[in-house]
From TrEMBL:
The lineage of its organism: Bacteria, Pseudomonadati, Thermodesulfobacteriota, Desulfobulbia, Desulfobulbales. It comes from Desulfopila aestuarii DSM 18488. This is histidine kinase. Residues 41-257 form the Histidine kinase domain. It comes from the Bacteria. The chain holds residues 356 to 621 of 621 of the full protein. It is found in: Cell membrane; Membrane raft.
Length: 266
């Protein structure tokens, strides 16, 4: 059920009543579930033919330059880029629909934030030095452990760092930090890149939303997946950004409580 309440008032601002609305959304939820099931089946089926198309194009690109004119080679390269984009999209759609239909099992463990940061730093070591970006990691040794599925939260962190790397200039700066707020840890990825226009700051967490739709190889699904993973941990994710100055993406994860480690299906 979806529950909402609206106050009704007179012009003198005195409240005279309240409208309570209780809406049965069982059918809506069922429709959403069926939609995710369909997306999951379709993306699963698309993977095999896409892989063979991609392999054929790769082979042609490797050997056809001896007998194909430059224009045809350009067409082949364009086909290669589009198939690559489709492969990423199908992979991301499959991941997202698996989360939405509860096919992914989360394995919670007690983990230090420093470990999560170390994983993320390791993944981007090469790219960071190639782009001459500095990636700094705050000292988080004094924070309590968090209750999280390490792989999934590292995936979220990596996705945020990968985006930050894409939108910072050469010589730019990315910072990973964390702080305790009540019984959650707020984990932030800050960059001094292009920033995000205000009208996009909430929308970018929706599926397929991209600020610049011309970007090659992007799907607009990364942040939607991050949001689902964080939600499954009982947390939230948001961005604060100044156009031209940079962005700070923050998500929350619960502090580890003593007792049973949870095992949840999302
Ligand atoms: P994609 O996988 O296509 O990058 P995301 O869901 O990860 O999609 O991001 C959606 C959009 O949000 C991106 O296309 C980009 O416009 C914007 N965005 C995300 N992170 C940043 C960032 N750190 N700085 C500027 N823009 C960003």
């Amino acid at each position: 059920f979806l529950f909402s309440a609206t106050a009704i008032g007179r012009r003198d601002h005195n409240i005279t009543g309240v409208v309570l609305l209780l809406k049965d959304i069982t059918q809506l939820r069922e429709l959403e579930r069926l939609k995710s099931e369909f997306v999951m089946a379709a993306s699963h089926e698309l993977r095999t033919p896409l892989t063979s198309i991609s392999m054929s194009i790769d082979l042609l690109l490797e050997h056809a330059s001896q007998f194909l004119p430059e224009k045809e080679m350009d067409l082949l390269q364009a086909a290669h880029d589009e198939v690559h984009r489709m492969k990423i999209m199908v992979h991301d759609l499959l991941d997202l629909s698996k989360i939405e239909t509860g096919r992914i099992e989360l394995e919670f463990e007690y983990v230090p934030v420093a470990t999560l940061f170390e994983h993320a730093r390791g993944i981007f070591k090469g790219q960071v030095s190639m782009k001459e970006v500095s990636l700094t990691v705050d000292n988080v040794e004094n924070l309590p452990l968090v209750q999280a599925d390490t792989n999934k939260i590292v995936w979220v962190l990596s996705n945020l760092v990968s985006n930050a790397l894409r939108y910072v200039e050469e010589g730019g700066h990315i910072r990973l930090s964390a702080e305790r707020v009540s019984n959650h840890i707020h984990i932030s990825v800050q960059d001094d890149g292009t920033g995000i226009p205000p009208e996009y700051q909430t929308r970018i967490f929706q599926k397929f939303v991209r600020v610049n739709t011309q970007e090659i190889g992007r799907t607009g699904l990364g942040l939607a997946i991050c949001k689902e993973i964080v939600r499954a941990h009982g947390g939230t994710i948001w961005v604060e950004s100044d156009q031209g100055k940079g962005s700070v993406f923050t998500f929350t994860v619960p502090v580890a409580e003593r007792g049973e480690r949870r095992r949840t299906t999302i």
